[in-house]
Structures are given as C-alpha cells and as structure tokens.
Design a protein that fits this description.
alpha/beta; five-stranded parallel sheet
Length: 230
C-alpha cells in the first residue's frame, strides 16, 4: 500500500498561521516588488511548498526558480507556502497576496483538508473561490492546480472524490493540472524526512520536476519564447 506524504496538522494552528503570515509579510513583499520586468509565479501552498523541515532554499519553489533562470525566462517565483494551511486558510490569505501582480498561480492546497477528513465539496468551493478572486484581479493570470491524493485507508468513498476534485477544478477553469504533486516521492522513505510525511531535499527536486513539466510550457507561451528553450 502506498503511503502518501502530506502535511502535519499543528496544534494551535491559528497562532502558527499568524506567525507565518507575519513573517511572510516581511519577506514576500520585497519578492513581489523586486526583479523589475519579471512576471510573478506565486505558489500558494502548505508545508510542501514551505519546505517543512528543510531550509526554504531547498523547497521545490526555489528549485523552480533555478529552472526558470536556467531557461532564461523572465519570471520570479514567490513562495507563499504556510505549513498546516488548508484550502480555507489559502482563501483567507489570497486577498493579501493579490495586492501585488500575480501572472501565474500554482495552487498547492488541499492536502491538509484531506488529512483532517474535511468536506471535499467545501475544499473544492474554497479552491474555486481562490481561482475566482485571482482571475477577477488579474484576468490574464494562468492557473496551475497541483493534484493531491489521499491514502487508500481513508476509503474510496473519500479518496476517490478527493482526487477527482482537482481534475474537475482544472477542467472547469481551463487550468493546467499537475496530476499528482508527489508522484515518485509519496511512500518512498528515501525521499521523505524521518516523519515519512515531508519530502527531503532530493524529494523536493522530484516534486519540482513534476511541477516544471506543466509549468514550463505555460511560461514559454506567456513569454513568447520558442519551445527550444531549455
């Protein structure tokens, strides 16, 4: 049976969330404002994006930035990952994030909803609301949805609709879908921290590659760069 990494549910989440948001307020704003002439790729996520247990420079958003720079593409990755966050938490944060331009939104939320057994319908509505708010503020924004899966022991009655929710969101919003963010990492103890929940540095490299396969064509199209770019 495959065991899928997911996010730790922290006690006292509101306080932790507030602290993380306050820290983000001091670090994300310069990231949005810097790199004049570059467009913003915002990763709205949870502990996977935040690089739980690692230095943030080792998390997959940083690897994506390296890929972008190597391909000479004019984009700046903004890591808006907060450990323990849910789809509802992301919805609460999105208005603040939209105060700066968002050209591409990578929506990496929902894993904690699943771990807590929260309503799939409510999760889908929250994610849809995030997409709606983003496109209302920036109609040309591209959306990438990171698909997640729950372990089979939660039962097919939950795991099936949970996985399908991401597919439905991508289809209904004409968004790009990353089929399973943790493909090749989930269930592999060599690619996860001792908690067997969060990816190691090597695991994050694979996660980044899963995202890059979908993100790269989007960035090439936006920038008008020929597909021969590496």
């Amino acid at each position: 049976m495959r065991v899928f990494p997911a996010q730790i549910v922290h006690r006292g989440l509101p306080a932790a969330w507030l602290i993380a948001l306050l820290l983000s307020a001091g670090t994300l704003a310069p990231a949005f404002a810097s790199q004049s002439g570059r467009q913003n790729v915002v990763v709205l996520g949870d502990s996977i994006a935040a690089g739980y247990g690692l230095d943030t420079d080792q998390a997959f958003p940083k690897v994506l930035q390296s890929n972008i720079d190597a391909a000479n593409l004019p984009f700046n990755v903004v890591n808006a990952g907060v450990s323990g966050d849910t789809s509802a938490g992301g919805l609460r944060r999105i208005d603040w994030l939209l105060k700066r331009p968002v050209d591409v939104l990578i929506l990496e939320l929902g894993g904690n909803d699943g771990l807590r057994g929260l309503s799939v319908d409510a999760m889908q509505k929250n994610l849809q609301a995030i997409i709606d708010k983003t496109r209302s503020a920036y109609p040309k924004a591209e959306i990438l949805i990171a698909g997640m899966q729950m372990p089979p022991n939660l039962g097919n009655d939950y795991a099936g609709p949970f996985q399908q929710a991401f597919v439905t969101l991508a289809r209904d919003n004409k968004a790009a879908l990353i089929p399973f963010l943790l493909e090749g990492v989930g269930g592999n103890p060599d690619l996860n921290l001792p908690d067997r929940i969060h990816p190691t540095r090597e695991g994050h490299k694979i996660v980044a590659e899963n995202v890059w396969k979908v993100l790269k064509p989007v960035l090439l199209r936006i920038s008008g760069t020929k597909t021969s770019a590496s």
